[in-house]
Amino acid sequence: MISEMIGGRGTVELRTVLHVGPAAPGIDYEAGHTLVSIRLDEAPGVRLTAPMEAASGEIVDLGSRVEFRVVDRGGIPTPAARLLDRHD
Question: How far apart are CA 36 and CA 20, in angstroms?
Fold first, then answer.
């Protein structure tokens, strides 16, 4: 098996919004907590699923460009996606 590093940028192919879930730092289920499935640019056929990094209730359209990264949520490293603006 050969492993290599890949970038975390990609396109949102699936989105769901959770309104119920276990208590967690930085998550507001009442406003809606968005999860996305990301098709990675550098790895055809690879998909990642992650919550959005920004505030709950953020509107994320299918086809939006995002970047996968790890953020700190209450001292816990957590995978997340952030929206890229049109210049990223």
Answer: 16
Give the three-state DSSP class for 43: coil
Tell me the whole-structure pTM to 2 decimals.
Answer: 0.77
Q: Strand pairing of 47-51 and 65-73?
A: unpaired
**Burial class of residue 37, CB neighbours in 10 A (0-12, 13-18, 19+):** middle
Written as six digits, the tokens of 1 are: 């098996």
Residue type (1 letter), 33: H
Predicted confidence (pLDDT) at residue 72 exceeds the cutoff of 60: yes
The reply to whether 88 falls in a domain is no
Q: Which domain holds residue 50?
A: 9-83
| Distance (Å, whole) CA 58 – CA 63 | 15
CA dist., res. 19 & res. 86, Å (int): 29
